[in-house]
Design goal:
With about 750 residues, the protein is mainly beta. About 5% of the residues lie in helices and about 35% in strands. It has six helices and 57 strands. About 55% of the residues are buried.
Length: about 750
């Protein structure tokens, strides 16, 4: 018998792992076992995405050098691993692709290893984890940004413990379909100073995105096999550092698939709704996620760059009164959140069986006899089928504009009355799955804070058609429609213009200058995946639109759009893509995942981040050097700035950067504040007149001098207090509902379509 120290250590390891290594303290990370999966087991993030290829440790393509032993256990993939405790023992592997992942076990006996690609040291990966039983098939190393072509991977044991090889997974992406761009590769037009560069990874697919401070953004996805891991399982949320481009995983309990979100008046961010427990295609006991349909996830941002962010969920005491998937969440004039619409469970196109044509509020309100429970909406009932993720804006008079399907209205939540608006012209539908995008145009005292709405893109596909009669090649719409929300404007109706290219699922982003840049989207098809004919990969849409377009809202009708001088991307941004203005004035573009789970096929899961920088990013800019941190309604406040040019045109842009998902930029807003006077380096200005013009809550302030904005600084508008709490309404919601009631109602039958779109 081999009696070397290496073998004896491996032998003890083998004895521990002859049965599945599951102990009472090592259950699925939330300890949640729904009826569909009755046997909890430790989650293993091993996953071979469509378009990728896995190689077990016994593959003849893997070469071992040194003292390696084969260890057998039913806990391991393929029932066996190669393991060594010998210093300098190596694994060598030649592959052709754009990425590679190493999966192995971790516990207290394991240690570090040096990872080389093409003879370059790229990582020192640590297989140590503080568990007595090995955690099988953990992702120990991954990279996804290699140039297409041949590469050599070498893993060398550092000698402070053992290392294992369960599997290697190679990402094999065709260069023609998804070119890999190197970090900080820049695209600059020869005719303009607009630039586009790739820098950073979101770690999880950017289905949802919100800037939470001057230095950070939060990225939220659905439960899936993302490469970013936390506590031994894939993360589905992350914090992205806007300065360093580094990403940190966040722990989330429930499935946030297609949730909505909003900030409250006190700065708290809520993430609302989602999808049931993942069960049909993976083991729910493995993933450990909770039902997200009623979830209200609470996130407390902080402005210290080094503070930790936590997502809190309390399903027993904080939840919605009804399940919602694809709901829109809007901060209204009292600083609370209005939660509207959605579907009662996952699916695809909405229908009368699962439609949730109601509103509710967070914190719950006792209005119109509801006592915190949902309030019926005739509009959201009558706009079926294409009415998920309604486009909504809080208006200066406190009412709410809502567009769904090809209809629109103004809703007075205080009186529960609807004022119908003229239909969106030419039969264009603008909400999921015929998704367009929309913005509330800038407000100022110069236009008497008169609200005007812009809706762009979408589709004229008949939303009553089954998927078998819809094609990924059905043309999207290039239409952009504007309407002024005054009596005269409503009577005049929508003004129609057209983008240079048709777009489904576009993202429209307000700049501090008052201009709008439109990015992302497809030229044909509809939103979702796996539902229509002529799918590309499994995408319901095709023909990605790769060139941004600039919209100048003050230009003459017919000449407002231009793509001249705009750099084109080479990364398709299809379904589940996002874009947002960031505090430095650039536009962050991320996401794209028209897939059930992480995929490497055409229109696969995209983690790279692009940065679209307007010309003002490349020259001298004004600077806000000191501010008071908050501004009251109608109150005069001051800023200290760098010395301004004599006679320059000054504007002060107060902006909500929004919560972005599915082409809906909820709460996105720009208000030009009144500048009262300047004295040296001190600028005096007046806050917005009321919460209708700017709902109380967080904002970013940009000083714009002669069309060039400063970097934004975060401030609080209003008194920073929480929205009013009605304790009786909260108690009634809790008494009248059950936590995760959808999971309970479906018992052991499961859901046939919970993961389809």
């Amino acid at each position: 018998m081999n009696t070397s120290p290496s073998f004896l250590l491996l032998f003890s390891y083998l004895i521990l792992c002859t049965a599945p290594c599951i102990f009472a303290g090592d259950s699925a990370w939330n300890g949640h076992t729904p009826p569909e999966s009755s046997t909890p087991k430790t989650f293993a993030p091993y996953y071979v995405a469509p378009g990728a290829k896995g190689y077990s440790s016994s593959s003849p393509f893997i070469q071992y050098k040194g003292d390696w032993q084969i260890v057998y256990s039913p806990s391991f993939n393929h029932k066996a691993v190669h393991s060594t405790c010998q210093k300098h023992a190596t694994i060598s592997f030649n592959f052709n692709g754009t990425g590679v992942e190493w999966f192995g076990n971790c516990d207290k006996r394991h240690g570090a290893a040096s990872v080389y690609i093409d003879k370059n040291l790229v990582s020192v990966s640590n297989a140590y984890c503080n568990t007595t039983s090995p955690l099988p098939s953990q992702r120990l190393f991954s990279t996804f940004s290699l140039r297409p072509g041949a590469h050599r991977l070498v893993i060398e044991n550092s000698g402070d413990g053992c290392i294992d090889l369960n599997d290697l997974v190679v990402t094999r992406v065709e260069q023609s379909s998804r070119p890999i761009l190197r970090r900080q590769l820049q695209h600059r037009s020869s005719n303009s100073d607009w630039t586009l560069n790739v820098d950073g990874s979101t770690g999880v697919n950017a289905m949802q995105l919100a800037v939470i401070s001057e230095t950070h953004a939060i990225v939220i996805d659905k439960v899936e096999h993302n490469p970013l891991t936390i506590n031994g399982h894939p993360a589905w949320a992350s914090i992205f550092d806007l300065k360093s481009r580094q990403v940190t995983p966040l722990e989330m309990q429930s499935n946030s698939f297609c949730a909505g979100g909003s900030f409250l008046s006190n700065g708290t961010l809520i993430n609302v709704g989602g999808n049931p427990v993942v069960a049909d295609h993976t083991s729910a006991a493995d993933f450990g996620d909770l039902d997200g349909l009623q979830a209200i996830r609470i996130i407390e941002p902080c402005d210290d760059r080094h503070c930790s962010i936590k997502i809190s969920e309390f399903h027993d005491s904080v939840r919605m009164a009804s399940p919602r998937w694809y709901n829109t969440v809007l901060r209204i004039d009292d600083g609370s959140a209005m939660i509207m619409g959605g579907s009662k469970k996952g699916g695809w196109i909405n229908n009368a069986t699962v439609n949730n044509p109601t509103y509710e509020f967070y914190p719950p309100k006792d209005i119109h006899g509801s006592n915190g429970l949902p309030i019926h909406s005739p509009f959201l009932e009558q706009t079926l089928n294409s009415n998920l993720f309604p486009i909504a804006f809080s208006l200066p008079d406190g009412r709410v504009f809502i567009a769904a399907n090809n209809d629109a209205m103004i809703y007075d939540w205080k009186t529960n009355t609807e004022e119908r608006l003229p239909p969106i012209p030419n039969g264009v539908r603008v909400t999921y799955p015929m998704a367009g995008t929309g913005l509330l145009l800038p407000l100022s005292s110069e236009n008497n804070y008169t609200p005007e709405v812009l809706l762009c893109g979408g589709s004229t596909v008949d939303d009553k058609k089954p998927g078998s009669e819809i094609s990924s090649q059905d043309a999207a719409s290039s239409q952009c429609s504007r309407i002024v929300l005054t009596r005269e404007g409503i009577q005049a109706g929508w003004e129609v213009d057209n983008m240079p290219q048709a777009r489904l699922m576009p993202d429209a982003v307000l700049l501090p200058t008052g201009q709008i840049v439109i990015v992302n989207g497809a030229g044909s098809g509809i939103s979702g995946y796996g539902n229509v004919i002529d799918q590309v990969g499994v995408s319901n849409a095709a023909n990605p639109v790769l060139t941004p377009v600039l919209y100048n809202l003050s230009a003459d009708h017919g000449s407002r759009f231009t793509s001249q001088g705009m750099p084109s991307s080479s990364i398709p941004r299809m379904y589940h893509s996002v874009a947002t203005l960031t505090p430095d004035g650039s536009v962050m573009i991320a996401g794209s995942n028209p897939n059930l789970d992480r995929s490497e096929i055409e229109y696969g899961t995209e983690y790279r981040v692009e940065w679209l920088s307007p010309p003002y990013m490349h020259g001298a800019r004004p600077e806000i050097r000191k501010h008071q941190g908050s501004v009251g309604f109608g109150e005069t406040s001051s800023l200290e700035v760098n010395r301004l040019k004599s006679g320059s045109d000054l504007k002060l842009a107060l902006m909500d950067l929004g919560f972005v998902t599915h082409a809906v930029h909820s709460n996105s807003r720009l208000v030009f504040l009144d500048v009262e006077r300047t004295s040296g380096n001190t600028l005096l200005f007046k806050g917005p007149p009321n919460g209708g013009v700017y709902p109380p809550g967080p904002a970013f302030l940009f000083l714009v001098e002669d069309g060039v904005p400063s970097e934004g600084v975060k401030i609080m508008v209003g008194d920073g207090k929480s929205p009013k709490v009605d304790q009786k309404a909260i108690e009634n919601v809790l008494k009248s509902t059950q936590p995760d009631q959808y999971e309970k109602s479906r018992g052991k039958k499961g859901s046939e379509d919970e993961d389809s779109e």
